[in-house]
Amino acid sequence: MSSISERRGFTMIEVMFSVMILAVGSLALGTLLLRGARAATAASAVTYQTAALSAEVGRLGAVPFTQLAAGTTCVNVTTGPFLHTRCATIVAVSAKIRKVTVTVTPTNSTTLEPLSNSFERTISGEAVSPLFSQ
């Protein structure tokens, strides 16, 4: 016969304490993973917003000067990973200068602010494209 002091194994209190430590650690890790996922989603949204702004600025930078009509044009993008409204405002500063402002406003995000960029387009000579001269 063996005495109680010779028995090997864990007591119920040791097992409960180990399970409690594991549960607290898992809860902390779950919270950390949730924060990381939210930060990754926010970073992704900023990347999409910046890409949409850059694409529109690049497109308007490639449009011939004579086709830049003064006014505001807005497009609602309702498909894809980044739902937004993209507005381009063109102001005729003079016959040879156009100020272009592009603004991208997220429609499904409460954390992102509208992002905008402005630039000027100029033309030399008589403000007539050489491609269209006779």
Short description:
The chain has one helix spanning 12-62; strands at 71-77, 84-94, 97-106, 115-122. By secondary structure, the protein is of the alpha+beta class. β1 and β2 (84-94) form a beta hairpin.
Overview of the molecule:
The structure is a single chain. The chain is an alpha+beta fold. The protein has one domain. The chain is built from 1 helix and 4 strands, in the order H-E-E-E-E. It has a 4-stranded antiparallel sheet, with helices on one face. The radius of gyration is 30 Å and the shape is rod-shaped. The mean pLDDT is 88.
Summary keywords:
alpha+beta; single chain; 134 residues; four-stranded antiparallel β-sheet
Number of strands: 4
Helix and strand element order = HEEEE
Structure classification: alpha+beta
What is the count of distinct domains? 1
Write the layout of secondary structure elements.
Layout: H1 12-62, E1 71-77, E2 84-94, E3 97-106, E4 115-122
Antiparallel strand pairs: 1-2, 2-3, 3-4
